[in-house]
User: Which sequence fits this backbone?
């Protein structure tokens, strides 16, 4: 790829770096958190981005960052967990997929690394969910 | 805003929901992590998105998600922390701002809430950094 100079204007368009391949095919019935009985899945990284996986290894904890491509972006308040008994709450205080920029954070463990894909889990994201970033787990040292 | 039906195609363009107002004016000399002596700052939420802050309160721990608008998006390997003594590493194993989708995660504490802005910290993001999402801190329960 051609190098751009630092300070050049950066497009605000996300470019998927990969995709989730999971046995979960629909949001219906999928757990709302990975820890609630979600399965393992494959994170398949597109070939152009596979170099970015260098030095990731089985056992590492990462945040898989997804883009909820079926979300509603015009929602600012929700009943958390779609439970009408919980009072309406600003989306920034919740994990609702419906929000102005529908980014999903999935803290997962890498089970295995195979060329351009990672076996990860547990993860509640459904099959076909675009992946936009992968990060080492955040630790708060202060 | 007009409601769209679920399943409608979702644009992959990020829309900033706010901006960081900080005494840090340049990446030069800014700490690379909030825990390394960074100051507190204001997270100013744009008025159209301010309803999303409902129920956030002083003392809450959140992840401020930023967009590194000065980053390079064509970088897949880096020396972590720009230290040439550390071997080249895939960006997905690092917190490098240079990466295909330059999202920044900043775990911070809310110090105060004032109408459409949050006092947060410590945070290493520089003045003018666009904010694209705010999330409650991730906890791994499993």
Assistant:
């Amino acid at each position: 790829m051609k190098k751009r100079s630092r300070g050049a204007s950066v497009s605000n368009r996300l470019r998927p770096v990969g995709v989730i391949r999971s046995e979960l095919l629909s949001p219906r019935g999928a757990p709302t958190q990975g820890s609630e009985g979600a399965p393992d899945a494959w994170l398949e990284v597109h070939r152009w981005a596979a170099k970015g996986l260098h030095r990731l290894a089985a056992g590492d904890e990462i945040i898989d960052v997804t883009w909820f491509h079926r979300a509603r972006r015009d929602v600012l308040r929700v009943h958390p967990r779609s439970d009408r008994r919980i009072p309406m709450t600003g989306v920034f205080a919740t994990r609702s997929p419906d929000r102005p920029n529908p980014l999903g954070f999935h803290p997962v463990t890498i089970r295995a690394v195979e060329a351009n894909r990672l076996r990860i889990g547990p993860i509640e994201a459904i099959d076909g969910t675009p992946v936009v970033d992968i990060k080492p787990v955040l630790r708060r040292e202060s």
Chain B touches chain A through 67 residues (CB under 8 Å). The two ends of chain B are 38 Å apart (CA to CA). Residues 1-8 of chain B have pLDDT under 50 and may be disordered.
